Amino acid sequence: MKKLSIGSFLSIILCLGLYAQSLAQEGIIPEDYYKTIFVSQTEISPGGDYVAFTKTVIKEDENSRHSEVWLQKLSDGRPDGEPFRFTDPSVQSSNPRWSPAGKVLGIQSRRDDDKSVRFIRITAPGGEAFTIEGVEGAPVWSPDGSTIAFINEPDSDEERPDRAGWISPEAITQTLDSTRFDGRVITHMQYKRDGTTNWLPHPSTEKKRQIHIVSAEGGEAEIITDLSFHAGEIEWSQDGRRIYFSGDPLEDDEYSEEFTRNLYSVDTETLEWSKLLEMEGSQSSPILSADGRYLAFQHTPGRGAETDVYIVSLGRDGIPNGSPLNLTESWDLQPGGIHWSADGNQIRFSAQIRGNAHLIEVNRSGGDVRQITEGERRLSSISVTEDGNFMAYTSTDAVTPAEVFVSRSDGSREIQLTDFNGEWMSERVVNSAEPVYWQVEDGTEIQGWVIKPVGYEEGGSYPLVMKIHGGPHTAYGNTWFQAFHTLSASGMFVFYPNPRGSSSYGHEFMYATKGQWGKMDEEDFMTGLQTVLEKYPDVDPDRIGVSGGSYGGFMTNWLTARFPDRFRAAVTSRSITNWESWYGTTDVQWLTEFEFFGKPWEQRELYRDLSPMSYVEHVKAPTLIIHGEEDWRTPIADAEQWYIALKKRQVPVEFVRYPRSSHGLSRTGEPWLLVDRLERKRSWFDYWLNEEK
Q: pLDDT tier at 6 (50, 70, 90 boundaries)?
């Protein structure tokens, strides 16, 4: 056998090293979505012995998602062993809820029978699930654990026709044969809702969800409300004599433009119920202090107004005996879910802050609003032990999918409990998101982030894709976006800004674009893009792409029409092109009625002035159009108009129509369609921005 020289041997070693390096340089690809594990719905047990959470995996072969409830045992706030699956792997399970003593876990479970609620005793891993007779909805235990309340439609002895509500009871026209007619006769406006495949029946035929109670040992459930509207958000009083809840008595009034959700209470013995407060606007999220003396809730005076956290003192009868106090009057961000501290002296809630999401606290008496947790990340699904010593939550950042964490209630001694995505992500290169700031003409500071291409080398020349979020009152930030890293892996810079109109920067910032969609925030995008070009000289200014979905799709259309020489290519998803036609087909007409100061016939010129279709003759950018065929939020007719206009003008264009897909395609669509969407966006930009044209 011929022996290798030292030089040849070293050459082989060098080649192997370069090969290994090239493998290590592979970034995120669309198919990695199938490997991603999603955690949510964290629930720490009252005594802090366990953290329950929902783990969701993608079943590629079945084109589906599969959820299970997992547990992590704790000892003094630290993990005791590894997290383990607690529910039957052959069925879907989610939404864990602890009993007050922490001995039983309630779950939502999809099985062959009609029982969707199951319970498991915490005696051993994978305990046998059982049902409690009479419980037909997500369980809410009374404080002493003796009774379970839930919300569900009441059972009825009357048979409901298979087509109940298909023909409006207000219909004037008649049919010759009702058994043959399988169409719809509609006299109401709210006949469709995004995410719902079937048309909605006439609201007068819909049963309203009522509050039921049943012994925790099981039995026949008692319906304790008889409401003409849906009950929601139930909360037990400490003595179990009263249940607080919210509801909107005008929910079926399709002409009502006011916020009219109220708080109510019902006596569990007399079944008498009453409205709690006389306040304009909407109240929601009732939460009692541990001693039962105070009720915290959220209040929104009207559409577009700030949401604040309030408390009101309660008498011994559980009825308010004072005026509500606004605890966040001087704080202008949006509060999330609220809960009390264990000693009842503070109220805590989550909130988005400049692209992050953290736990916030305010004293019961008001005063300064304080941020408890820290970091360039987003926390969600926060739950706390009964004594308030520990809390569990999920945390994600710009380079990491969400995982489960536990910490002390002040955010200290934080420990990561799961690392489901660590192994596969260790084989990928994921570049960090670098913040960038700039000012627009009126002095407002705008924030964005930039991700460099995988394999970036200083002095090179790279394309850039500017991503635009939906809403418009949402925000990008420090959270995991696979789509961004897929583009980065294809050799592109990715720039994603939070222009005026975004949430998490204050109420005035969020509604600055009212009546000026596109007209105002185009400055934010274009000055931001110029800032990025100056800060990152390796970006090729002649290879700029733009992409977004929903409002981001609208802005993609808008920018390519208003700045035709700036963008080499575009991808517009579930977009709006014509506000007048959109108004007649969407399920949310109220959106532009508020934002555009009226209906299309009241603000005809504004609707047309803010429509990308009014400027479509200027578009030059090759455009990929992506839309779901069952999207009722931004119906596909808008995509069809844009496609025909570009096609007639001989602008390179492709139109991808996804079947069985609602407005949530990018988040909750069928896995295969979602991954296909990622690849089509990547390959479109790769063709127009990376290849020589």
A: very low
User: Alpha-carbon distance 227 to 243, whole Å?
Assistant: 14
**Going by C-beta distance under 8 Å and a sequence separation of 6 or more, which residues neighbour residue 308?**
298, 299, 300, 326, 327, 328, 329, 331, 335
Q: Is the pLDDT of residue 692 over 90?
A: no
Spatial contact of 108 and 93, defined as CB atoms under 8 Å apart: yes
pLDDT band at 5 (very low <50, low <70, confident <90, very high): very low
Q: Which residues have a Cβ under 8 Å from the Cβ of 509 and sit 6 or more positions away?
A: 444, 500, 501, 502
User: For residue 75, how many C-alpha atoms fall within 13 Å in the half-sphere facing its CB?
Assistant: 4
Residue 23 has pLDDT above 70, yes or no: no
CA distance 478 to 445: 18
Residue given tokens 């570009």 in the structure block: 646
Q: Are 127 and 105 a contacting pair, CB within 8 Å?
A: no
pLDDT at 654 over 80: yes
* CATH fold label, 436-690: Rossmann fold (3.40.50)
Query: What CA–CA distance (Å, rounded) separates 262 from 275?
Result: 7
Please say if the pLDDT value at position 189 is more than 80.
yes
Rounded to whole angstroms, how far apart are CA atoms 12 and 39? Answer: 44
The b-or-e profile of 216-252 (16+ CB within 10 A means b, else e) is: beeeebeebbebebbbebbbbbbebebbbbbbbeebb
Helix (H, G, I), strand (E, B) or coil at 636: coil
- Mean pLDDT within 44-63: 96
- Which run of H or E residues covers position 488? helix 482-489
Q: Which amino acid is at 667?
A: R
Q: Which tokens in the block code for residue 633? A: 């939020």
**CB environment 481-520: b (16+ within 10 A), e (fewer):** bbbbbbbbbbbbbbbbbbbbbbbbbbbebbbbbebbbbeb
pLDDT tens per residue across span 316-343: 999 999 899 999 999 999 999 999 999 9
End-to-end CA distance of the chain: 52
Task: Report the 10 Å Cβ neighbour count for 75.
Answer: 10
Per-residue confidence band for 158, with pLDDT thresholds at 50, 70 and 90: low
pLDDT tens-place string over residues 253-283? 999 889 999 999 999 999 999 999 999 999 9
- Residue range 584-596: average pLDDT? 95
Structure tokens at 568: 């080499």
Q: Which of 584, 585, 518 is nearest to 553 (CA)?
A: 518
What is the per-residue pLDDT for 494? 98
Average pLDDT score over residue span 208-218: 96
Q: Residue 198: what pLDDT?
A: 85
Dihedral pair phi/psi, residue 645, rounded to 5°: -60, -45
Helix/strand/coil for 282: strand
CA dist 136 and 221 (Å) reads: 9
> Which amino acid is present at 136?
E
| pLDDT at residue 596, as a whole number | 97
What's the rounded mean pLDDT across residues 81-104? 93
Cα angle, residue 45 at apex, residues 123 and 90 outer, rounded to 5°: 55
CA 312 – CA 322 distance, rounded (Å): 6
Q: Which SS3 state, helix, strand or coil, does residue 136 take?
A: coil
DSSP SS3 for 609: helix
- HEC per residue, 1-49: CCCCCHHHHHHHHHHHHHHHHHHHCCCCCHHHHHHCCEEEEEEECCCCC
Give residue limits of the domains in the chain. 26-131+394-428, 164-206, 436-690
Angle at 636 between CA 632 and CA 641, to 5 degrees: 140
Least confident of 120-134, 416-430, 480-494: 120-134
**Who contacts 84 (Cβ-Cβ below 8 Å, separation ≥6)?**
70, 71, 72, 125
